[in-house]
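Hi,

I'm pasting everything inline rather than attaching a file, because the server keeps stripping attachments. The sequence lines come first, and each chain or strand is labelled.
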Amino acid sequence: MKRIFLTLAAASLLGGLAISCGGDDDSGTINFGFLNGLSGDYSSWAAPSLDGAQAAIDVINANGGVLGRDVRLVIEDNQSTAEGAVSGYNRIRDEIHALGGVESDGAVALLSRLPEDQIPTICPACGTTELDEKGGNYIYRITASDTANGIIAAQLARDLGFSKVALLVQQTEGAESPANVFKQVWEEKVGGEVVADVRFAPGNPSYQAEVQQAFANGPEAVYIGAGFEAGLSIISEYINRGHEATLLVSPDMIVPPISEAAAQLPTGRLLAAVATDDFGSPAYTAFDAAHNQYVGSPPPTGFYETNQYDQYIVLALAMTAAESTDGEKVNEQIPNVMNSPGTKVYNYPDGLAALERGEEIDYDGASSDLELNQKGNIVSPKMSVRQIVGGEYEERNTIAMDPALNPVS
Amino acid sequence: MQNVLFGLTTGGVLAAATVGFALIRQTENFLHIAHGQVLALGAYLMVILVNSQGLNVFAALIVAMLLMGVLGVVLGAAIFKPVAAQGGNVLLFTSIGMAFIIYGAIIAIFGTTLRPINVDLGIQLRFSVPEFVLLLCLVISFSAALAWFLNSRSRRVEHRKLSGYWDRIWCAPPTGLTLAALTLASLVLFIVSATTDGMGANPDSLNIKMGEFLMIVLSLGSVIALRLFLGFTRVGRWLRAAASNPGLASVRGVPVRTVSAVVWFISSALAAMAGGMIALRSINVTTTVGWANILLILSAAVLGGTGSILGAMAAAVLLGVVMDVSILWIPSSYRSVVAFGALILVLFLKPEGLFSTQRRAEQAA
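And the predicted assembly:
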């Protein structure tokens, strides 16, 4: 009995070691993790994000997979929280070769774990300013930083002629990050006045008192940084109380429930500045075709679906360039396949072909040119201003960031 | 003052759920944590009935309350009754387990995406500050007068002795007369004020949507109606007998099972009412609404103390007011800290709760 027990224990230990080893294995499917907010504050983005991600996987598999192996998405819900991201990551860590889909809260929570576990990770929707300096080692970001989002919002308020603003901000990483930059830029660079700065915890039964406080001193505009659960209540209260200040909302509120709730507001009353897609690029054309083919419909806009798509194309190309699924080798190749110099490619098959010819590549994605700086952040994200027309968000104009407003300049 | 109004709305809506929770605590002797998920399920049902079936909001709310009431009866009989003999801890953990089961069922049935509900809450009611103060006095004095009357009546019927200095003051006839006079005076002054200069003519007047006002009236009215039901009906007397001594009540011919079913039905229906109102105020419902509110409900019930339905209602309203008024001086992110801090302080000074009748009954015995 004792011998059987010891044998079983040894076998389990060896099996566990084999599974947990993050090194190269040359058999079976390649697993890309998709750790995303399927429930909670980010759940409005979940379905289109997953569509974008799955379209990339389908494109990759239709072109022979990676290293001759099929690719599979390992989907896990992070409940839109940092705690959920850590527990979700723990559940899938041992079976994935790379990770995508994470948002700000999860990225910050996993910052130290990812290099330890050697899991190359691309973040398609992480705005957190934490990655401004801490990215570039096993975690890369292919969307605009909250620094950029905060600067753009302050620039928009300045360009609209406001001088007095208030802030109404949810105390979560994703909401406070751009709000703090907005406030800093507004006060220090624009020279504007902040007449109220109201921070609230999410999950309250109502936000009436917070809205009252934010509008009490007559702001010309109010920056609202919130998830769409709290955001909906706030918009409803704003309408019920008959307030008239312009609302500048954070990217998390660019979702249909918000635009539908605010449909009765005059056009231009609610605005959002956010990263936009590179609609004119060949990469977007390829993405659009892939989305139509594999999802069965044209891609929506504003849901990070292009970023979700680009992240897995990049991971697949990096693995091909590394000729391995080994985390360390893939990590080295990620900036190589995204940055110049190299043969410009706009889709997976062309990238694959160029790599097979022994060429270096520079993949430009559907979301942007994907040029990264040393810290793994997009150098020049495309930004636009969105407004609500007929209950839907639509682009009002593109906007180039004023470098004079950069808080570190 | 506007924040006081907000707090009254928050607390008023919570009061229904708190009273339902307190009812279970009083009669079944355990903390029914799954009450929060019943609230959530009721909210989802109401939203679905309005959005998908096109039902009127009130009709949807009634249907949701009835369905949750039935669910409550089933849960009480099938899940909690079989383990009741095991004691409060087993019931508590059974309720926690049930909370996760219902939560999982909500996700499985309704999904995880937020469900918006866009219902016009009607015209804006405006009050000047004096009118609001008078209205507040009217509600408080009426509630206190009603509590005095019911307490006096039950004390006479149960031949309960007075205990302590404050009990003697509270139960004295002049107290009742004073409260009645205050109620009448507040009512008259409010009507005069409202009809002479017009309500809320001042642009700085307080305002509340008609729908929110009706929510407060419905919620508090339901609780008061429940209290009267407990005090003046046979079933109500059975319920109070079963709550104080189930064994003796059963021997004396009280149908304990029927009484238990009534308690579960009322408690769950009140939870559904609160859930529906929370959804209407937030114009959405999410899977987290149950978990987000159960701690507040529990705190209000503990704050109110055992034995007093009106006390639980008052505690919920008080908690709502404290949370919404506190943000005038303290950052909003600490509103829950303020609420629970106040709870701890009260329990430190009065461990049985603010309005508990249990200690007074024990002292009188």
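The interface with chain B takes residues 38-40, 43-44, 46-47, 77, 171, 198-201, 203-206, 208-210, 212-213, 228-229, 232-233, 236, 240-242, 257, 260-261 of chain A (CB under 8 Å).

If the labels don't parse on your end, tell me and I'll reformat.
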